[in-house]
Amino acid sequence: MKRKGVPRVLMLLLLIASFANRASAANKGFVIAMGGGNGTPEIYEKWKTLGGGANAHVVLIPTANNPGDDIAPVVEGLKHVFGIQNVSVLDTKDRTKANSAEFVALLKQATFVFIDGGRQWRLADAYLGTRVERELRNVLKRGGVIAGSSAGASILASYLVRGDPKGAEVMMAKGHERGFGFIPNCAIDQHVSERHRERDMEPVIAAHPKLLGIGIDPNTIIVVHEGQFEVLGSGKVTITEAGQRQYSILSGSHFDLRKRMPL
């Protein structure tokens, strides 16, 4: 009996080790959500430090942009931040293209991916469930950075707010409620203090009480890594949780996403 049990024990240990390795790999990278704005020197330095510095391979995803938006200033800004000559652009609304090996090749070497703002439903419609989403996860597994601003921040969460193609005022839009899930069990709102959105997350959390609501001010970021985040920038982050009084945390603060409490 004991001899028969040994292989099973070993198998169980191997499975546990394998799971631990996968979990560790998934936590290597950093997810950075910014609540809109143009950023600050402190934010840029964090991007550069975590994203590879002068050796970074930067990819810009401007798919959320409104028609006619000029991406040249964003490209030039990223070049300036990292001190590099080239920024690759990944942009399509064609899901067949987004699901092709050729299209996602740019992400294979990426160390820093920036998802620009606009309307988050465009990102969901183009990339959810495609190779783009899978390769973005691989960027994190390699230890890279995925950063998003405004709409690009909201899509990073598991629940997508303001996803209605008809207008950004609708917080919960049937058919557009799933984000990439790089920050699990949460919903992210942006431009909070600028647009007086402090209370907008309350109906979302009331309808989905297991979610954590994270509202981010402009020129403010959360840097998510291994189940925690750090706040940096000129504004604050507003936390909305079922059964709890809403509160805010400031730049320099840390938050435990597992325990759902400031550190």
Word description of this protein:
The protein is α/β, with parallel strands linked by helices and 263 residues long. 32% of the residues lie in helices and 24% in strands. It contains 9 helices and 14 strands. It has helices spanning 2-26, 41-51, 72-82, 95-98, 101-104, 120-127, 131-141, 151-154, 202-207; strands at residues 30-34, 58-61, 88-89, 112-115, 145-149, 157-159, 183-190, 212-216, 220-225, 228-233, 236-241, 247-250, 254-256, 261-262. The strands form 2 sheets. Strands 3-2-4-5-1-9-10-13-14 form a 9-stranded mixed β-sheet. A 5-stranded mixed β-sheet has the order 6-7-8-11-12. Helix 3 links the parallel strand 2 (58-61) and strand 3 (88-89). It is globular and about 45 Å long.
What's the rounded overall pLDDT mean? Answer: 92
DSSP strand tally: 14
Distance between the termini: 49 Å
How does the helix and strand content classify structurally?
alpha/beta
Summary, kept brief:
The protein is α/β, with parallel strands linked by helices and 263 residues long.
Task: Break the fold down into its secondary structure elements and pairings.
Elements: H1 2-26, E1 30-34, H2 41-51, E2 58-61, H3 72-82, E3 88-89, H4 95-98, H5 101-104, E4 112-115, H6 120-127, H7 131-141, E5 145-149, H8 151-154, E6 157-159, E7 183-190, H9 202-207, E8 212-216, E9 220-225, E10 228-233, E11 236-241, E12 247-250, E13 254-256, E14 261-262
Parallel strand pairs: 1-5, 2-3, 2-4, 4-5, 6-7, 7-8
Antiparallel strand pairs: 1-9, 8-11, 9-10, 10-13, 11-12, 13-14
